[in-house]
Amino acid sequence: GQNIDQPTEMTATEGAIVQINCTYQTSGFNGLFWYQQHAGEAPTFLSYNVLDGLEEKGRFSSFLSRSKGYSYLLLKELQMKDSASYLCAVGTIYNQGGKLIFGQGTELSVKP
Amino acid sequence: DGGITQSPKYLFRKEGQNVTLSCEQNLNHDAMYWYRQDPGQGLRLIYYSQIVNDFQKGDIAEGYSVSREKKESFPLTVTSAQKNPTAFYLCASSFDNNYGYTFGSGTRLTVV
Predict the structure, then answer these.
(1) Read out DSSP for B43-88?
(2) Within chain B, what is the greatest distance between any pair of CA atoms?
(3) Percent with pLDDT over 90 in chain B
(4) Rounded to a whole number, what is the distance in Å from the CA of A57 to chain B's nearest CA?
């Protein structure tokens, strides 16, 4: 079967660093995505990893280990506006519909 | 500018009524998807379509129906058979599995 796990909620302090973990079990793995979703809004794309290693994009970085079925999203220099839900999603190979399988999301609260 | 548009933003339905949620994209994307999001839960796939005139059931298709008569449009009908339709509905499209999704802004459906 297919399964994605991430913590339900996390709290961090403004200016700090936080790491949100995601573990997955899926067949036909074809990349891992991270999305940010503010309450009542649509998810917005943050990052994509298909090969092992770290992808850095400004304050946000994402890491993937395919052999371990593991990814993390690293947020540096946290700002209050980073309070949101962070969704981990795994892509499947195209002939399975090209659809993404989503985790339940991690609700991040940034405190002053 | 290209994008994906969902309407209406808020929708109220009386019990026993069918309602149709609109989703239109001008991104020239082949694939389109409908997800449902409930509080504290991740995105659950309702239906998806890879090409015109073809669509597949997702994980929670019961009580829903779709059509894909045009590449740009993928409307979702919530039928009276859906026992608990109150939720946030998200439409998404993708050009290729490696590019992830572009999401619409969502429709919040409430049964009154």
Answers:
(1) EEEEEEESSTT--EE-TT-TTEEE--SBTTB--EEE-TT-S---EE
(2) 40
(3) 73
(4) 16
